Amino acid sequence: MSKLALLGGKPVRSAPFPRWPVFGKEERTALMKVFSSGTWGIGGTEGKKFQERFAKLHEATYGIAVMNGSVSLEIALRAGRVGEGDEVIVPPYTFAATATAVLNVNAIPVFVDIDPENYCIDPKRIREAITSRTKAIIPVHLAGHPADMDSIMEIAREHNLVVIEDAAHAHFAEWRERKVGSLGHMASFSFQSSKNMTAGEGGIVLTNDAELAERCWSYHNCGRNRNGEWYHHPNFGGNYRMTEFQAALLLAQLPRAQKHSLLRKRNAQYLSARLGRLPGIAPLKVDPRVTRHGYHLFVLKYDQEQLGGVKRSVFLSALTAEGIPASRGYVPLYKEGFLAEVKAFTLRTPAFLDRDYSKTVCPQTEKACEQGIWLPQNLLLGTRQDMDDVVRAFEKVIENSSQLLEFSAKTEKREGLVVFGIR
Fold first, then answer.
1. Read out DSSP for 67-110?
2. What is the pLDDT of residues 164-187, one digit of tens each?
3. Residue 219, exposed/middle/buried by CB under 10 A (0-12, 13-18, 19+)?
4. Of 46, 292, 298, 396, whose CA is between 20 and 30 Å from 237?
5. Does residue 325 have a cis bond before it (omega within 30 degrees)?
6. Taking Cα atoms as reference points, which of 235, 256, 163, 177 lies closest to residue 206?
């Protein structure tokens, strides 16, 4: 067996995976067009074009482009009339913005556990969490895998709830041949630096509802009415507009992004087939109703017992040393510090102040946070040889797990001696 790179051996690969973001003359030309026009914000045409094209590609009628994907969630909540004391059901296995957007409209995030098969919110658990205060559900299409929107929309109809898709990971993904972004009442996408389309920052709200679209437009544009006077602000909005530079970048990326979506899917399917045969790791399953996975992440479960007790952190260190970028992923949102800090704000509703998140336990989320291994989306833009390197690195680390156990034991022993003052 070859020596692990973590222990001084030669790594499987030293070459980088495809860079991110991918850009070229299309982006340069688009940016210079905006620069030369002198219209960099209000009055430009690129934002309008991008809204229309992105919405159409996701089978939505309306798009409202905004400054980032966090504020797009907040705008959608406000458009859905979610406010003080309302409860919003969210998964705890997601980025903080899914919950902080709820807090920013003075509502209460209610954490509902995930499906262990795909790490998306579990509809069965949603039913159990609904109360008289429940106003909305934010399903997260985790890693690009669409949540079970059939069940979620059925629950929403039964209880008259607003559904806002958090599609930050799911550009061009499909559920039963329908694009995410058109399945709920509204949807939020992100164009932050790591996302499958990026302008550095940016976001968009999609909807097929004309009234919701008008509210979102007003909230993102200082509370104006679309056909009203410029200095007339009938609604309480803010300046959340996307710049022309951001829109131009995203417009230039659209053709390439659609091709990338298919490439990620092919490479992910290849990795799933190859890695799924190895002990100790298992790619997340894909629901058969998912007709296109967005693959913002390629996620696996790590089984410490199958590899003789090697800790995930050690396994990740060994994998990274072999030249494969990998990370552990999220921690449960209900354990994050912002929930305690936000209680200090004077405008929080009493219903929130009385809530004790320390009592929240979502077993499947906690297990996912202990077992998850993430590979980034740009890795999936590589060649078949790149994918074979990924497989070889996993094989090498797994085959040499005994080396990792010995390494861990020595490291822990040294750390223990230092802790007790022995050198």
1. S-HHHHHHHHHHHTT--TT-EEEE-SSS-THHHHHHHHTT-EEE
2. 999 999 999 999 999 999 999 999
3. buried
4. 46
5. no
6. 163
Phi, psi torsion values for 297, nearest 5 degrees: -140, 150
The whole-angstrom separation of Cα 364 and Cα 315 is 21
Tokens of 29: 């030309």
Phi and psi at 389, nearest 5°, equal -65, -40
Beta strands 290-292 and 281-283, pairing class: unpaired
Catalytic residues: 95, 166, 169, 192, 195, 224, 231, 241
- pLDDT tens per residue, range 108-166: 999 999 999 999 999 999 999 999 999 999 999 999 999 999 999 999 999 999 999 99
Residue appearing with tokens 């074009």: 49
Instruction: Specify the 3-state DSSP secondary structure of 128.
Output: helix
Tell me which H or E stretch contains 187.
strand 186-190
Q: Which domains does the chain have, with CATH numbers?
A: 5-19+256-329+370-419 (3.90.1150.10), 25-254 (3.40.640.10)
- How far is it, in rounded angstroms, from Cα 129 to Cα 378? 37
